[in-house]
Each structure stands twice: as C-alpha cells, then as structure tokens.
C-alpha cells in the first residue's frame, strides 16, 4: 500500500474496530449492566450518550440539538478529510504525527457520527474509576480522537522548534 493511503487505512480500521466493539456491547451487555474487569479501577458498562464528548449536554439533548450536532460533525469531518488529503499529497514533507493524528481523529469522528445518525446516540462502555470518582464512560472512537488530538498537539509543539 502506498504511504499516501496509510492514514486512510488507519481511519477505516478505527471505524471498523469501533463498530465491532459497539456492536458487541449492544448485543451482549444489557443497558447499565456493569462488569468489573479490574475491581476498583476499570469496568465495562453499557451507556448511551446523546450529548457531546464525555456526556456533556447528555441530559438536555433534544432532537433539534442532535441534528445541529450531526451537521456540525459532518462539516468538521469534511474539514479533517480535506486536511488529510492535502497532507497526504506531500507525505515526505510532513511528520507522521500530523498524518496519523488526523487519521485517528477522522476514524473516531466517523464512528461517533455514524452512531448519531443511525441511533441518535453514541454507545459508550469503557468506565475507569477510583473510589467514588468516575471518569465519564467512553468508547474506541473517543480513544482514537483523544490520541489523535494528542499527536496533533505533539506535532504543533515539534514544529515550533
């Protein structure tokens, strides 16, 4: 495979992995069931998020706000796709953190937008906690977006030098 298309393959792989894990959770874990994996630290829980990242606005999400979120997300997907296409053409001049950071964000965003369009909500299931403190549950797509954003920040920092 040409190095130019590797970021797109990574985006596609993230989307497929995200869909497979969400399908498995939706098929095998009842809503709000909890399966402790590492007691006191990590569990699997089936939740739905109608809001934005980490459950923000989850309680007040209406049909019109969901539509606005979908439209906004599709616009952002177009922007990220255009950036990735631009930087994929000049692959030898750009650092890998830029290409693969964009690819991870793209793959994760497509996974979550797919859920919003198909179901009106995003399935989350990874739940990390310590005592009574719980990090908001998330999924593979959210993880890819976060890692991709970290790579993009690393790229910005490295390019300043």
Low-confidence stretches: none
Q: Mean pLDDT, as a whole number?
A: 87
Order of helices and strands: HEEHHEEH
Put simply, the count of helices is 4
- The overall strand count is 4
Biggest sheet, spatial arrangement of strands: 1-2-3-4
**Global outline:** globular
Structural class: alpha+beta
The whole-angstrom Rg is 17 Å
* Count of structural domains: 1
Q: Termini distance?
A: 32 Å
Report helical residue fraction.
55-70%
Beta-strand content estimate: 5-15%
Helix/strand layout:
Layout: H1 6-28, E1 34-38, E2 42-49, H2 63-89, H3 96-119, E3 122-130, E4 133-134, H4 140-160
Antiparallel strand pairs: 1-2, 2-3, 3-4
Helix pairs in contact: 1-3, 2-3, 3-4
How does this structure look, described?
It is a single chain. This protein is an alpha+beta fold and 161 residues long. It has one domain. It contains four helices and four strands. It has a four-stranded antiparallel sheet. Strand 3 and strand 4 form a beta hairpin. It is globular and about 50 Å long.
